[in-house]
Design a protein that fits this description.
- There is one protein chain.
- The protein has one domain: Porin, CATH 2.40.160.
- The protein has 6 helices and 20 strands.
- It is about 10% helix and about 50% strand.
- It is globular.
- The strands form 3 sheets. A 16-stranded antiparallel barrel has the order 5-6-7-8-9-10-11-12-13-14-15-16-17-18-19-20. A two-stranded antiparallel ribbon has the order 1-2.
- It is mostly beta strands.
- Mean pLDDT is about 85; it is low at about 1-25 and about 275-280.
Length: about 425
Amino acid sequence: MKSTFSFVLSILLLTGLSLIVEETQAIPSFARKYKTSCSTCHYAFPKLNAFGKAFKNNGYRYPAGQDPEMTKEEPVSLGADAYKKVWPNAIWPSDIPGTEPIAINAIGRFHYDNAVNNSKSGYFEIPSVFDFFYGGTLGDKISYFGEVELTNTADVEYQFAVNYDFAPGFHLKVGKIGLEDATPDHLTLTATDYNVGSLQNQSGTWQLTDGAGGGMQLWGAVNGPGGKGGLTYSVGIGNGQSDVTNFDLNKKKDVYGRVTYKIGGLGETGGTEGQASNQSAFYIDNSLRFGGFAYSGTAISDSTTDKFSVVGGDIDWWFQRLNLTALVMQMKSKYLGKDRTSLAYFIEGNYVIYPWLIGRARYEYTDTDIHDNSNQVANNILPGIVVMLRANVRLSLEYLKPLDKSRKADDSLIFQFNFAF
């Protein structure tokens, strides 16, 4: 009876705390908590390695029950553990981080493209983005993650979510939810967003990186046979279309689901070794992960309904120093009596030349309407190089070359630096 009542109270608490969030990642405040390098969880920040994903799947805790012994920054206790025995005649004990769980990511860029009078020129975009991240755990069952983002155009975005972590295989998230795992722009090493994330529905009112907005999600992960690889899943329901003044612009809710399976490599919830193995570098996780996702939603434009759906699949292959990822997505949209089918896909490769030097390239293709030849097709290749000057300082140089004739003069060169602390 007590456990049931405790569960109901936890749900009410999470609902009350819900605001907005983006898909989660490890941040420097976790490095301070565990007194460890950013490379413990990151291939090259913000891209997670296998252990970083296992850390997230455990509710931002070390796998295999190792969190108490690995924590170097003592939390502040909010009640004695004995209070659990006399509950509800005492407040359930918890703790908060010993220091402020805040991290900062500053991004600056230099562009060389057709910016002025349709002629090549260079300009500085400093600062480009200034992010305040906050994330951590409250006791042994609650975790949270959020972000306040300031841009050079004076825009402010804020995101937040809370998880109730029943077990690695079952978490309840309340806040900003969506299919960010399918299009992890915030985990890529490129300055240019993935094309699949910016593909819009027919009325131009929704794209995948908008997610489902505020809502509720069930998600989790389990290891595969022998503690290697395993399954991840997420299902959610959310507001969908929103704007700067409204959390929900229509009465209908969007729904989605995603599942992946990993063969080989570190288990999706980790293991007793911490890192992948004593013989494996932090950037190596010999494995193959494949997955699929679906999304169904409704948007409103000029009082007209735009019903849309998204289906897609992806592959993530790690072999020694090479990591290849590929994703294909189809979007169907019905608006003003017209059906439109769009297609977008990309394939990206990263190769670790040295632990601090990574070569990368991406090919991407976008067709906004595969049945209408009058629509422009975007066809790009993006080679680049990434330099980890320090574990928390990243430099990158990226060249975007359009391959379709109508945009052949729209090539650009971007130099970017990231500081995280």
